[in-house]
């Protein structure tokens, strides 16, 4: 196998949570509030069970050929050449997603913290550890996630608890006059945008220890990660209201600035931002790992390590080119990105499962005759 390291089921579940959280911890409240309006928090909670169902769909697709990663599954179901074409489409999605997440980090750091630092420097500092993680292998990525995930959950708890004095319940009243567009966008964004982007898990699933309750654990992880995002949307609406939630790109950072307990416990926004940077780092790392592993699988290479440096350089270049600034990314790129997420994480997997079922039934009938 291309990857010699193995992941425990707990490490796999933690990586799933980190991928779902990722850059969503900063931009998700703004995105779902922009598309869904006053009912954004409601759609976010509706998305929790739907996201668990989507993770079940992912695992069902992986279980069609348990020893194959996503590239191998495509080729087994569609045949060599159609599967290769679809694999290239998904690999393009992986590399652009890794670059986009890196760019969001760069825009955040240069607009909120390092105001006079060139974004190219920030991006370089961010992608170098990604390359180092890939070089050390999947097993070390999993162990690192176990060490760092308590930071994220702790800071999320602090954010919610210490903002309770700022809560205004009247800002959460649902708006009944909802358009069909807002309803459909809200439902889709509520589960496709966070959980759909956990798709790279399928690239590392064959390298995880097989356990009977793997499907259940992954579904719970998807539900927990999406629940964190729903709580974040709700607290944003309760504290800032709809208008500020829609127009504040880095909502979590602004929320953390509002924490002030007795004029003593305050100014912790940089600590809060560190949790977001950690989750985005792991998300971008797993996406790039999926791309590198996919390229090696596609061309039947014996090792992927010599691909790491050129792929990291590609991500660095793309992150500088993918969008001019975060405003353009939110207003122009994200609407199309949602359609891309919907295509790769729901439409195509469903079609692949249908094709697999048809082929299995035809081969079964042929065997009987």
From TrEMBL:
Belongs to the amino acid-polyamine-organocation (APC) superfamily. Spore germination protein (SGP) (TC 2.A.3.9) family. It comes from the Bacteria. InterPro entries: Spore_GerAB (IPR004761). It is found in: Membrane. This is Spore germination protein KB. It is a multi-pass membrane protein. The keyword Thylakoid does not apply.
């Amino acid at each position: 196998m291309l990857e010699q390291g193995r992941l425990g089921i707990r490490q796999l579940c933690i990586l799933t949570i980190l991928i779902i959280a990722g850059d969503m911890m900063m931009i998700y409240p703004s995105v779902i509030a922009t598309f869904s309006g006053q009912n954004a928090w409601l759609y976010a909670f509706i998305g929790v069970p739907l996201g668990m169902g989507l993770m079940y769909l992912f695992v069902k697709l992986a279980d069609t050929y348990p020893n194959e990663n996503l590239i191998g599954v495509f080729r087994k179901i569609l045949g060599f050449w159609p599967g290769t074409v679809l694999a290239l489409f998904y690999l393009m999605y992986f590399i652009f997603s890794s670059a986009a997440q890196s760019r969001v980090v760069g825009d955040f750091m240069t607009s909120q913290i390092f105001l006079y630092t060139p974004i190219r420097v920030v991006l370089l500092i961010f992608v170098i550890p990604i390359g180092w993680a890939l070089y050390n292998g999947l097993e070390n990525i999993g162990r690192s996630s176990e060490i760092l995930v308590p930071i994220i959950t702790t800071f999320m708890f602090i954010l919610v608890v210490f903002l309770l004095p700022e809560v205004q319940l009247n800002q959460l009243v649902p708006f009944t006059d909802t358009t069909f567009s807002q309803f459909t966008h809200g439902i889709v964004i509520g589960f496709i945008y966070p959980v759909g982007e956990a798709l790279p898990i399928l690239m590392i699933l064959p390298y995880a220890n097989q356990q009977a309750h793997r499907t259940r654990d992954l579904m719970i992880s998807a539900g927990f990660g999406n629940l964190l995002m729903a709580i974040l949307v709700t607290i944003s609406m309760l504290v800032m209201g709809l208008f500020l939630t829609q127009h504040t790109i880095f909502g979590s950072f602004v929320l953390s600035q509002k924490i002030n307990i007795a004029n003593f416990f305050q100014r912790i926004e940089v600590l809060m931002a560190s949790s977001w940077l950690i989750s985005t780092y792991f998300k971008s790392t797993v996406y790039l790992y999926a791309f590198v592993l996919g390229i090696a699988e596609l061309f039947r290479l014996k090792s992927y390590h010599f691909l790491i440096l050129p792929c990291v350089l590609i991500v660095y270049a793309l992150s500088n080119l993918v969008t001019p600034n975060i405003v353009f990314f939110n207003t122009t790129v994200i609407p199309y990105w949602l359609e891309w997420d919907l295509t790769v994480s729901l439409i195509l997997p469903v079609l692949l499962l249908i094709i697999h079922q048809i082929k299995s039934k035809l081969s079964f009938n042929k065997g009987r005759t």
